[in-house]
Amino acid sequence: MNWLGSLQQLGRAVMLPTMALPAAALLLSFGSLPWAAWGAESLGTIATAAGHGVFYYMPYLFAIGVAWGLSNQGGPAGLAALAGMFIYDQVTGTAGDGEIQPSTLIGIIFGLVSSLVYNRFKHIKLPEAIQFFGGSRFVLLIMGLFSALFAWGMVGLAPRIQGGMESFYELTVHLGGFGLFLYGILYRVLAAFGLHHLLNNVYWFQLGTYETPDGTVVQGDLPRFFAGDPTAGDFMAGLFPIMMFALPAIAFAIIQEAREDLKPKVKKTFMRSALVCFLTGVSEQIEFAFLFASPYLYIVHALMAGFAMVLTYMLNIHHGFSYSAGFIDFVINFHLSQNAWMLIPIGLAYGLVYYFLFRWAIRTFGIPTPGREEGSALEGWAGNIPYQAPLILEALGGKDNIVQVESCMTRLRLTVYNDRQIDANALKLLGSAGLIKLGGGNVQVVFGTYSELIREEINKLMQRDLPRVLFSAPVQGRMLPIEDVPDDIFAAKLVGNGVAFIPDKGELVSPVFGTVMHVYPTMHAVGIATPEGLEVLIHIGIDTSQLKGPFQAVVKEGDEVEPGQLLVRFDLGYLKTHAASLATPMVITNPDKVKSWSYAPFKSVKKGQTSVLSVVLNESNPGGREK
């Protein structure tokens, strides 16, 4: 599946230039106001010109964005792609008949070639006499030569390629509703793999041509819609009922079918997701809530989405968006639409069908959507992102496992050395809605709209070499803050700082690498010294030091232990009867060595599970010597 990984990287890069479109839509909407009646006609003229300017230079933005995205943010690659586009425009304008204009497809080609040249030759060394042209300058030199030759060849090929694309578009139009039905299904299927941007780029930016009154030629369903083409919008209008109504209805169905004890947490998460989807059209967090739990239900969803495209086509509804089919774009671009008011009753009908269909399916087939089993709810974000990022990085296999980390609006897009090192359960507990492995080390992790912020924090961690110690869960059960332990000494952190657990299985395992310092006589507590100099105490239950018999240690003082290694077996039933509490603190007894603390969400954990606690040490090493 390595080719899927390559497509993932291309899809991410192709999506990058579209970030400029919302600004263009806002400017065009602003320019459409009746400024002439208000005596400020020039404001409308300037805003409209600015908005159309974004679409006019969209091929150049694609060239820069694709080159920048595929070269791991290599600035010279983007500069070389832009220079190539300038050369292409000049050569085709001089040698051609003046009708050849740069398109988004040409921009993507230049971005691809520039990134390939940059990745291959950015460190090239030439003989000393001409080393001035080595390194990044060599990339610009190669792209300049390539651009001139490519443009010269395109003088003859461009009309044929354009003719082929027009023929393909005419075939799609000839298929009518069936073609849109297939598009709607493909959109939803590819969205599961994060590859829908590739499909959309073809239909939204390359198929169909429209000449504006001033003679400017624009291509693609999206630019044509904003340029005033009355036939544009077919490949966008049908998405509004799905994004604004159907998917939020799924969120409401998931909330209603959640267990009563988990419903408050599920409601908080999915009400937010429903609002985000309704307003902006960002839908992954809702779709991933049932994609893996019930692929067959997702297929039904894809078919329904395809039918929505057919329905809007049959009713001659034309509407478009700058980013996605949410309420914000619905309102901003309403003045350019045709029959768009009908999307509201269609969407309401779709919402009702989806709500009752999903409630019936979840209940009838026992689909484990969030909130129907312990630990399955997508929690609201627990804590600040900077404090959660170290745990997410560890769940991804650690810094040494990361080759590259990027993001789009809703998911991290990573390349890792070994995707088997990724802890899917830990990521789920940290707020991930889904994990997709595309092969070749290419992985996607859906975190919703937090993804970009998480990427930034992970990149910061990748660039810093902080002395950090990560802790696994020492028991299976539920994690809770140390302040919630029903013991004044532990709760006041007089013994040390850390977390606690309510075990539901009678086994204690090591949370860290280290050496056993103490096994207390009754074996109710174990002390471990880590290589970094931290002293960790794990105390099974409260007021258990006088109990004899329920504990059986399998390690002794001086033993080397590793995360997940069994330390003590204990009689859980006996402790439930005789201990003051099952709360099991795990504390660092020398917290002065710790600079900062990061905690996973306080919820159910499995013994040996990574990423429940992460601490950054002070600037001295374990032995107390300055670094």
Q: Total domains, how many?
A: 4
Across the major sheet, the strand order is 15-11-12-13-17-9-8-19
Structural class determined from secondary elements:
alpha+beta
Continuous helix count: 22
Rounded mean pLDDT is 84
Beta-strand content estimate? 5-15%
Largest sheet: 8 strands, antiparallel
Q: Any low-confidence stretches, pLDDT <50, length ≥5?
A: 374-383, 621-627
Query: Can you count the beta strands?
Result: 20
- The percent range for helix content is 40-55%
Distance from first to last alpha carbon: 44 Å
Indicate the radius of gyration in whole angstroms: 29 Å
Shape: globular
Helix-strand blueprint:
Elements: H1 2-15, H2 21-31, H3 41-56, H4 58-70, H5 75-95, H6 104-121, H7 136-175, H8 177-191, H9 196-205, E1 209-211, E2 217-219, H10 221-227, H11 234-237, H12 239-256, H13 263-280, H14 284-291, H15 295-314, H16 327-332, H17 343-365, H18 385-395, E3 402-407, E4 411-416, H19 424-429, E5 434-439, E6 442-446, H20 451-463, E7 468-471, E8 477-481, H21 488-491, E9 497-503, E10 507-509, E11 514-519, E12 525-529, E13 535-539, E14 551-553, E15 560-561, E16 566-570, H22 572-578, E17 584-588, E18 594-599, E19 604-605, E20 613-617
Antiparallel strand pairs: 1-2, 3-4, 4-6, 5-6, 7-20, 8-9, 8-19, 9-17, 10-16, 11-12, 11-15, 12-13, 13-17, 14-16, 18-20
